[in-house]
Amino acid sequence: MAENVTIARPYADAAFELARGAGALGPWSEALDRLAALAADPDMRACISDPNLSADQLVKLVLDVAGTLSAEQQNFVRILVDNERLQVLPEIRDLFVALKNEHEGVLEAEIASAFPLDDATLVSLKSDLEARFKAKLNIQVHIDPALIGGVRIAVGDEVIDASVRGKLANMAAALKN
Known about the structure:
By secondary structure, this protein is α+β, with helices and mostly antiparallel strands. It is built from 8 helices and 4 strands.
């Protein structure tokens, strides 16, 4: 995995610089999402590793399946195929998104909740977190019944554990000391 990230980094950097220069960060992000999903598909992985497919055939296949891509994005696919790097598209996408978020001042936040959060609660929580971190947040919410109650929030390397499970673990640790 770490090797794939190392391989993907120069491609992500190049795509980011090209997209930023063209003022097309959003379209590039969407295209890389589609391409990454495509490269992660088991059938496409089989095609990528098939020695019987020429580079031109593989490029045509990817471009036919990927949907509408700009000329620069098509050239990017061609470069990835020529350098046998299609398999690292998910890592390229992840690195590109991190660069885009940093450029736009956006942080990723993951909220785990014991129960589904209603829209009003989520809006309020997002507003409070954005004020605390002084940044716009891209929030992903998922349900984790193991929390028993409350929420666990991760923003970057900071974790706020307001779950019942977390509080019980803290009490158990305090009782042992």
